[in-house]
Amino acid sequence: MRRRYEFRDRREAGVQLGELLGEREWRDPLVLGLARGGVVVGHAVAEVLGAPLDVAVARKIGAPGQPEFGVGAVTPDGPAYYEERSLSMLGLRPAQLVDICAAERAEARRRAVVYQRGRPPQPRAGRDVLVVDDGLATGVTARAALRALRADRPHSLVFAAPVCAPDAAAALKSDADEVLCLLAPHGFRSVGQWYADFRQTEDDEVIELLETP
């Protein structure tokens, strides 16, 4: 059976997402691309909205021996977030993940420094902050980012992505004021299945997009 893609690449997806978001009125909107792939989508969204673009960084905390299985996530600062159901299923406690958490936080801090390149973060207080990613699968990194951003006292905190797993989108509504997805298909298996081109986004591309007016 031939696979049917919905988006050619992250930029095309970002343009479509921007058009959806552009149907609304926003209060001094700020687009935050969730690094790395979300910055590509976010750049297109920011262009459509005529809004500034900045970056949010969160790193998945993988299970020991299963790094792709996210049991939590961490941002450059603030407490780590853990998915209690995943911890329980694997018989894990946060104390057992201290070293993995520290390594991921260090990488999150490295990326934040590299991407900001000495620029202060865009102010978030009192604004509609739109956190954009290329997709939502488990939601652990999005949840960690949203919880950290809530401390900046935005007027509203919205998560938006071209494609979302329906259950993850529903669960994320406890941390975002609104969750907006172009697609929330019941046949969701992975974010990449909905893109013809889902190659990995590199640091250099993130830096270039953040420096492009």
From TrEMBL:
Pfam families: Pribosyltran. It comes from Amycolatopsis thermalba. The keyword Repeat does not apply. Keywords: Glycosyltransferase, Transferase. GO terms for molecular function: glycosyltransferase activity. Residues 25-180 form the Phosphoribosyltransferase domain. Coiled coil: none annotated. The lineage of its organism: Bacteria, Bacillati, Actinomycetota, Actinomycetes, Pseudonocardiales. CDD domains: PRTases_typeI (cd06223). SUPFAM superfamilies: PRTase-like. This is Phosphoribosyltransferase. Transmembrane segments: none annotated.
